[in-house]
Structures are given as C-alpha cells and as structure tokens.
Design goal:
Shape: elongated
Distance between the termini: 12 Å
Number of strands: 0
Largest sheet: none
Helix content: 55-70%
Structural class: mainly alpha
Number of domains: 1
Oligomer: single chain
Order of helices and strands: HH
Amino acid sequence: MALSQQEINKKLFDAVTCIQQTLHSMKTMLSHQPEREVPEFIDHLASLDKNIEELRASIYSGGVKNPEDHQVNE
C-alpha cells in the first residue's frame, strides 16, 4: 500500500528529528572530552544541526500537521 505524502512527510520528519537528537547528545558528550580537535568537530555538528533544523521546518511547512504527534494519521 502506497503512503500518502502526509505519511511520507511524517516519517521523514521523525527520522530527521532522531538524527538531530543524536547530534545534540554527541555535542554534549564531546563537550566533556579533553580539547584536541573537539571544538572544530562541535562547529561541524552545530552547522549540521542548523541545516537539519531548516529541513525540519521545511518538512513541517510541507504538510506535517502536528510534529509532536508520533501517530501517523490515516
């Protein structure tokens, strides 16, 4: 059975949200590590996080009616 655009957007939004949460966890863990190349890596994570947030916003505006609702509306 084919998914509707709304269902596809919801699954994509959930996946991107999970990636973002993982990045936040990595950034927190790295902030407690000895300084080597960590600041540069944290900058890369921050840049990726910004891009992901923009993607989430565009997915949301494209049809995800309630991003906090983890039930797929059929």
